[in-house]
Amino acid sequence: MQSTTILRPPAGDRPAPRISFVSLGCPKALVDSERIITQLRAEGYELTKHHAGADAVIVNTCGFLDSAKRESLDAIGLALAENGKVIVTGCMGAEPEAITAAHPNVHAITGPQAYESVMGAVRQVVAPLHDPFLDLVPPQGVKLTPRHYAYLKIAEGCHNRCSFCIIPKLRGDLVSRPAAEVLREAEKLIKAGVKELLVVSQDTSAYGLDLAYAESRFGDRTVRAKFYDLARELGRLGSWVRLHYVYPYPHVDEIIGLMADGTVLPYLDIPFQHASPTVLKAMRRPGNHEKVLARIQAWRRQVPHLALRSTFIVGFPGETEDDFQFLLDWLTEAKLNRVGAFKYEPVAGATANDLGLRHVPPEVQANRHRRFMMHAQAISAGLLQKQVGLRLPVIVDKAGPSVAEGRTRGDAPEIDGKVYLRSRRPVRPGDIVTVRIERADAYDLHGSVV
Q1: Is 144 a domain residue?
Q2: Which tens digits make up the pLDDT trace of 257-274?
Q3: 378 with 410, same domain?
Q4: Could you tell me if 422 and 315 lie in one domain?
Q5: Residue closest to 393 by CA, chosen among 240, 242, 274, 258
Q6: I need a labelling partner for 298 at 20 to 30 A (CA). Which of 139, 226, 267, 331 fits?
Q7: Nearest-angstrom CA–CA distance, 442 and 332
């Protein structure tokens, strides 16, 4: 869709046009939403939380699972009912037929990362009020997260071809951002008050592979577009740096040294998905369970307080009870700190649908999911008990009259545990304080500011 040249009326002739925004899906999609919202604000559009009365509604969709697609279609339907002028973007926009079949009256549909197409659709609905070159936008852009942390997307797309995933079809192959571009964005965020950078992409440890690790100029030096180099430079900017969606390739071993010396947080989010060799082969996932366990043990010898989080799929086609028990036994040995699990859902277009494997009945999936989460909870509770009595740095997320909420270096926002802390002096979101841990439960810690 091409944008249209619009003659703008004088600013005093009408109020600023208002846009309602719905952001669905993962942190990577959230970054896309932030970029669109930043451009909206740069062009003089205001944001409103209410569809009714807005000039248009933008729905940034998720299309990874059928349940996510249903949520996206429901959000589009609600926006149409309350407003009528609806622009759809995001992963589900890569399959517009599914959207128009359910909602033929949407104004426009664009695919993921199609920022200019979204803006062109907005401008067709309602002209911007004033010249973007004369308006002020925060240097860091508009963020949907609290002021003290931000997601930093370093690449789009993915080279992997996991049988259950359609992300490469939706977002394409790996496209890494130059290292200097990423570092300049991180620098702006930190200057604006961000205390924690959450590094995200579809496959963070593959960063720079498509660029042949090309160098780019940042300040007085050149930086390679390579996972280790980028992590090191980000860690030197003065904020917490947390690494998400890291595949356990051998070169990840180098990052552990950056954790040992405090350059980046001792935290890795690794999407293992399973441990059974049979299931991993069907998933088209790399991973030798013995080598992965040996690598985890070596990492923890170097960084004893390393926190590992992961997600798993239970009930994948062909998964037997033996495969599932293998996964539970592997978890017992790996002792992952934070774990999430999903019941397998067939996704239209995924090659897993054509493997010819027996689908696990829904009631068996539900049973395995419950057993998995109980098993993981027991491991989490045991690891948290070992932190009782320690003094840990905690970043405050939410202040309260008597008890505040925060997170340790081993906990990411929204998905991991919390620290409930008492303090004799007021604490504010973004403060990093030392907390003496007094007790623990299955997922959270409780303590007092020292």
Answers
A1: no
A2: 999 999 999 999 999 999
A3: no
A4: no
A5: 240
A6: 226
A7: 16
Which of 92, 108, 134 represents a domain boundary (last residue)?
A: 134
DSSP 8-class letter at 226? S
Q: Is residue 9 scored above 50 in pLDDT?
A: no
Amino acid at 12: G
Over range 286-306, report the average pLDDT: 89
The rounded distance, in Å, linking the Cα atoms of 39 and 57 is 15
Of the listed ranges 122-136, 325-339, 386-400, the least confidently predicted one is 122-136
In a domain, 247, yes or no: yes
CB 323 within 8 A of CB 286: no
Q: Is residue 8 part of a domain?
A: no
Instruction: Tell me the residue length of the chain.
Output: 450
**What's the rounded Cα separation, in Å, for the pair 162 and 347?**
12
Interacting residues of 290 by C-beta distance below 8 A, sequence separation 6+: none
Residue 381 pLDDT grade (very low, low, confident, very high; cuts 50, 70, 90): very high
Token representation of residue 381: 């509770």
DSSP of 151-215: EEE-EES-S---TT--HHHHH-S-EEPPHHHHHHHHHHHHHTT--EEEEE-SSGGGTTGGGTT-E
Query: Is the confidence at residue 116, as pLDDT, over 80?
Result: no
pLDDT at 430: 94
Q: Please, what is the average pLDDT of the chain?
A: 88
Domain containing residue 315: 149-385
pLDDT for 167 equals 79
Q: Which residue has 């930086």 as its token pair?
A: 223
Write out the two tokens for 98. Answer: 């599914």
pLDDT for position 1:
32
